[in-house]
Amino acid sequence: YLDVIGTLPTADEVKEFLADHNPGKRSVLIDRLLQRPEFADYWSLKWCDLLRVKSEFPINLWPNAVQAYYRWVQTCIRDNVPYDRFVRELLTASGSNFREPPVNFYRAMRDRHPTTIAATVALTFMAARADRWPQDRLEGMAVFFQDIKYRRTGEWKEEIVGVDLLGGTTREAVFPDGTRTVLKPGTDARVVFADWLIDPKNPCFARAVVNRIWYWLIGVGIVHEPDDIRPDNLPANPELLALLDRELIASRCDLKHIYRLILNSTTYQRSCIPTTAQPEAERLFAHYPMRRLDAEV
After folding, report:
1. Which residues contact residue 79 at a Cβ distance below 8 angstroms, ignoring those fewer than 6 apart?
2. What is the C-alpha to C-alpha distance for residues 42 and 40, in angstroms, rounded to an integer?
């Protein structure tokens, strides 16, 4: 209850569960909780933290935009919009920040420089800290976002976000994996990048979100910290991360499928109390909790 909908069960719900002799009652309960409106309410708060949905300093989205953005995120979670579609809409949105909520993704940043946008995209959707990248790698990715324009209207705090498709020249951009691509004039480069990012063959995309969900539910990432995935920060359980990665792709980016797998797993159901009184076991668990994970979900 606390992990899925952010609240305790009522006394009647506890009694009903304890009195139920169905051996599959726990899975039934998990499915029921995932369908409750509180699930969308609770998890939209987590996603809004990640997407920096905030009215005032330092983001300054302003109240009208925050309301629209939050409701859009909440609706996507409630309707279980496939994660790849959710991300693509955020990256390719254009229009008014009051009437096209996903465009607020490009406003919820500390500044609007292309390298800042690229670093934010990498952190949010690839769990990669681009400040540790070589400068040319970040600048190559920033080319995908250099045509974004912001225009104010006569309405208080309204802003139109879009891409200038009329001008520009042919230029080369570089994906984070080092692959180069030529962008011709009149191309929305954000679309090109989004198609690369959400491609099922891209290992950066699925593993970032499944690792983040594991962190949200378990309290520690398979790769930890959950926003610091890099070659020299190895997963505690590579097989488990690979399994969840494959499951997300096979389910066509159904995040609730990942929630179900984790919540029904033996790992999630384990107690935080060591099963032995030996001091060595307690010390090992305290320092290396991920050693207790298994790859079977």
Report:
1. none
2. 6
pTM for the model: 0.89
Task: Summarize pLDDT for 224-261 with one digit per residue, the tens.
Answer: 999 999 999 999 999 999 999 999 999 999 999 999 99
What mean pLDDT do residues 38-47 have? Answer: 97
Q: Confirm if 49 and 23 have CB atoms less than 8 A apart.
A: no
Residue from 290, 93, 46 nearest 191 by CA:
93
Both structure tokens of 20 = 């139920």
Please report the sign of the dihedral spanned by the C-alpha atoms of residue 17, residue 22, residue 26, residue 27. Answer: negative
Model confidence pLDDT, tens digit, residues 88-126: 999 999 999 999 999 999 999 989 999 999 999 999 999
- Alpha-carbon distances of 269 from 20, 136, 265, 274, rounded to whole Å: 19, 45, 7, 13
